[in-house]
């Protein structure tokens, strides 16, 4: 079987069958761009998380999975799905949403703006569409067709280390912060939360506020009872960025090396914790929008604890195919009060979500060390 021989090729041999089409709000055609396998990598990683890692199959690597993009006729139009073939398990299909391809749509629209075919800021919609060869391939209304040959993501990944702790044991000590709506659980020890906010907000009080950051260190856990995956964040490292402004934070090569060196030393000292770089935090030390003059200010729900386009791109490149990685943003609301929001990937898109606060980090680390039933 021919797998991932040309990862940048359009998904179909039969003429760009899966494409992202940009239209004006009145549905008139703007442009189209082929969807390639790398465009689907975060969606595939998310499917790996949901169908394997959150089901206790922690020994399955992303490269062990085989994917197929399939199209099913529906009462109105077509449903595009990603079929996942797991070793020794039944095939499953997950819906292939187009929102993870927002960046591809944005780049395509930017090219149109540069070519003078679209005005900057003009509204467009984007959606998957399939080409004629696929539409012609349907013989009956109940047909489901594979759009492409099967493919894999053959990227080398280090073996993941999971600590085995019953989820019930962690939940009994934890306090929910925000709403957890079916996402995998994320735990912060009290100490890690305090340090994360302190490091992230370090630049807020300067005469000219700048974004500051923290690298979140923690363990991946797998519950031996339910198979559920969780992330336990037990510490934060202060990030010394190369370039800081009020709206941006760039890590230098030195910062990346320092984080990896610290992690290597910590893993050597306490291998049972299986510590990893599980996410990042930074501040947005500015109010949301132009709030000062606004009469809705006392009740306005806007905050600056959102993810910027740069934040999303950064997270996707640093934590590529690590759908458990989180991003915590500290911002301000319209009344200049501190607010924060945690984000993690859901179906390949970073969305806000709740988390659990745990007691002191030392006791959490001891809990991991003493409860850890076995490690992989
Ligand atoms: Zn940001």
Report on this structure.
- With 376 residues, the chain is of the alpha+beta class.
- It has eight helices and 19 strands.
- The protein has helices at 41-51, 102-114, 132-135, 167-173, 190-200, 253-269, 309-318, 361-371; strands spanning 18-23, 29-34, 66-73, 78-85, 92-95, 125-130, 144-146, 162-164, 175-177, 186-189, 213-222, 229-239, 243-244, 249-250, 276-283, 326-332, 338-346, 349-353, 355-358.
- Strands 8, 9, 10, 11, 12, 15, 16, 17, 18 and 19 form a ten-stranded mixed β-sheet that branches. A four-stranded antiparallel β-sheet has the order 5-4-3-7, covered by helices on one side.
- It binds zinc ion.
- Zinc ion binds next to loops.
Task: Say what the CATH topology of the largest domain is.
Answer: Cytidine Deaminase, domain 2
* Residue fraction in strands: 25-35%
Which regions contain 5 or more consecutive residues with pLDDT less than 50? 1-5
CATH architecture of the largest domain: 3-Layer(aba) Sandwich
Counting DSSP E segments of at least 2 residues, the number of strands comes to: 19
Q: What number of structural domains do the residues give?
A: 2
Overall mean confidence score, pLDDT = 86
State the fourth-level CATH superfamily of the largest domain: Cytidine Deaminase, domain 2
What overall geometry do the principal axes of the alpha carbons give? Answer: globular
Provide the list of bound ligands, each named once: zinc ion
Q: What is the multimeric organization of the chains shown?
A: single chain
Structural class: alpha+beta
* Major sheet summary line: 10 strands, mixed
Helix count from the secondary structure assignment? 8
What is the CA-atom radius of gyration, in angstroms?
Answer: 22 Å
């Amino acid at each position: 079987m021919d797998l991932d021989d040309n990862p940048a090729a359009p998904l179909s041999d039969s003429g760009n069958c899966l494409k992202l089409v940009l239209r004006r709000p009145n549905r008139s055609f703007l442009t189209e761009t082929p969807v390639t396998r790398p465009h689907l990598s975060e969606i595939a990683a998310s499917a790996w998380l949901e169908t394997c890692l959150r089901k206790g199959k922690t020994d399955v690597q992303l490269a062990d999975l085989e994917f197929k993009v399939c199209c099913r006729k529906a009462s109105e139009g077509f449903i595009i799905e990603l079929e996942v073939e797991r070793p020794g398990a039944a095939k499953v299909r997950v819906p292939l949403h187009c929102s993870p391809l927002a960046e591809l749509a944005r780049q395509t629209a930017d090219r149109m703006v540069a070519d003078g075919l679209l005005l900057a800021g003009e509204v467009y919609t984007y959606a998957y569409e399939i080409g004629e060869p696929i539409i012609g391939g349907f013989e009956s209304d109940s047909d489901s067709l594979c759009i492409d040959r099967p493919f894999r993501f053959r990227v080398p990944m280090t073996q993941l280390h999971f600590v085995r702790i019953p989820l019930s044991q962690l939940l009994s000590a934890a306090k929910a912060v925000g709403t957890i709506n079916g996402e995998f659980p994320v735990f912060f020890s009290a100490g890690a939360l305090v340090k994360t906010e302190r490091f992230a907000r370090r630049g807020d009080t300067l005469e000219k506020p700048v974004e500051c950051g923290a690298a979140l260190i923690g363990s991946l856990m797998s519950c031996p009872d339910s198979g559920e995956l969780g992330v336990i964040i037990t510490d934060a490292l202060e990030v010394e960025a190369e370039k800081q402004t009020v709206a941006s934070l760039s890590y230098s090569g030195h910062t990346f090396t320092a984080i990896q060196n610290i992690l290597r030393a910590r893993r050597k000292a306490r291998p049972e914790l299986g510590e990893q770089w599980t996410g990042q935090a930074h501040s947005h030390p500015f109010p949301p929008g132009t709030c000062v003059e606004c009469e809705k200010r006392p009740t306005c729900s806007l905050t600056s604890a959102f993810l910027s386009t740069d934040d999303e791109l950064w997270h996707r490149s640093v934590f590529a195919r690590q759908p458990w990685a989180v991003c915590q943003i500290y911002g301000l609301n319209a009344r200049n009060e501190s607010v924060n929001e945690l984000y993690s990937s859901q179906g390949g898109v970073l969305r806000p979500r709740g988390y659990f606060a745990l007691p002191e980090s030392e006791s959490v680390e001891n809990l991991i060390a003493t409860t850890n039933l076995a490690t992989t």
